[in-house]
Automatic annotation (TrEMBL):
<feature type="domain" description="SnoaL-like">
    <location>
        <begin position="19"/>
        <end position="108"/>
    </location>
</feature>
<dbReference type="Pfam" id="PF12680">
    <property type="entry name" value="SnoaL_2"/>
</dbReference>
<protein>
    <submittedName>
        <fullName>Nuclear transport factor 2 family protein</fullName>
    </submittedName>
</protein>
<dbReference type="InterPro" id="IPR032710">
    <property type="entry name" value="NTF2-like_dom_sf"/>
</dbReference>
<dbReference type="InterPro" id="IPR037401">
    <property type="entry name" value="SnoaL-like"/>
</dbReference>
Amino acid sequence: MVETKIKEIWETYRACWSEANTAGRENKLNQIIAEDFEFYDPNIDLDGSQKLSDYMAQFQKDFPDCTFTITDFMIHHDRSLAHWDMVNSDKEVVGNGSDFAFYSDGKLKAVSSFFKES
């Protein structure tokens, strides 16, 4: 897959973590997520865009006004590694971590997210 396509998919995925409109978020996820999508982080493992959207909605409730800023992004062989900061509305870093992603057939197939649990 072309690097620019992966970057576009990743940016849409990142933005969905802050998308409060459920229908809008689900529509965007359905465009970029593979049917057999898998997500893993220290707190959960889930599959499918609907469960991911629900998890994103819960994140927004738990961490109101927080967004993710990508600090470094690398791509090779249909895989990406993103380092990120979670920032609050005052632009203060309140957490950070890394996501490893795999892409297949023009879609995001899997994400493994790593961060320190608080």
